[in-house]
Amino acid sequence: MTSITRRGLGLVAAGAALGLPGIARAQGITMNLGHVLSATSAYQVIFERFKELAAQRTNGRVTVNIQGGGAAGNEGRLIQSLRTGVIDGAFVGGSSLETVVRDYRVLSLPYIFDDHPQANRVLQGPIGEELLKELEPLGMMGLGFGAIFERNIAGRRAIRTPADLQGLKIRVLQTPGFVEAYRVLGTQPTPMAYGEVFLALQNGVVDALEISNDAVVADRFVEVIQHYALTKVHQSTTVFAVSGARFRALPADVQATLRTAAKEAIQHGLAAHDRLNVEGLAAVRARGVAVTEPDLEPFKVIARRSYDTILAEAPNGRAWVERINAAKARA
């Protein structure tokens, strides 16, 4: 069994040049996939299902190794590894991809989607497929959008109106869309490494963080918060991406099989994430945390003032907003 190493890629290329597909087909194929989340996350669920399907449908020709929990590096490193062919595939956040795919800033616009079911419907359709093509000039290929993480506000203060956000020191994802949205909403957005947030919140360095229902429980933030507000400011996207060079070097039949396996695995993972989302919110309530469901319209009016700044460096940002809005109307 050989990995898709540089030597392996050379053998595949040589076989193709000589018109000998049997050389590629005879090689066992190992795919190394990475992600940064836990063994119970939607990322892991999707990759485990993909691993099963890949083995079954290629009669054991493809073996998948999964490196979770950041073992293959943080998301910035994973993206670089995909672009340079160091790793075969990874799950990465759409917000992390903004650094290299500037039009992906549209996915970090506050309230671009109403909720995560709507975001899933749009991104699992033609709009999602077209957005994935944006990865190809940058050395990557997208096999699909994964779970959508609906981001709410967890902290020490009840949030019922935009006035309650004024001066709030809140940890946000380190991406222009998140920072600008929360700045416009009147908070003090504070990017920091995720691993530092628990102690920062416990010690009062920050007042709150924006986070998803499943993570607020899985990562124990329920132990240090008193309030959880369903503000739904962002629907944080995730992408199953592969190295363009490595994937194209595979036999055509294997590529087709893996694309289908990825789509089926993602659907399996979406259902699992929906359960985690519901269970997470129930667990927050069960721990005695006060949950508020504010009227979102006043938040939306203010947050959307951030659009011009967020889209300033997205070459086709406005066009993508129009297309997403049209897709939402159809979804």
Automatic annotation (TrEMBL):
Keyword Signal: yes
Record InterPro entries: DctP_fam, TRAP_DctP_sf
Gene Ontology biological process terms in this record: transmembrane transport
Gene3D superfamilies referenced in this protein's UniProt entry, alphabetically: Bacterial extracellular solute-binding protein, family 7
Family the UniProt entry places it in: Belongs to the bacterial solute-binding protein 7 family.
Alphabetized Pfam families for the sequence: DctP (PF03480)
Keywords: Signal, Transport
Sections of the chain in a coiled coil: none
Name the UniProt record assigns to this protein: C4-dicarboxylate ABC transporter substrate-binding protein
Keyword Transferase: no
Residues making up the signal peptide according to the UniProt record: none
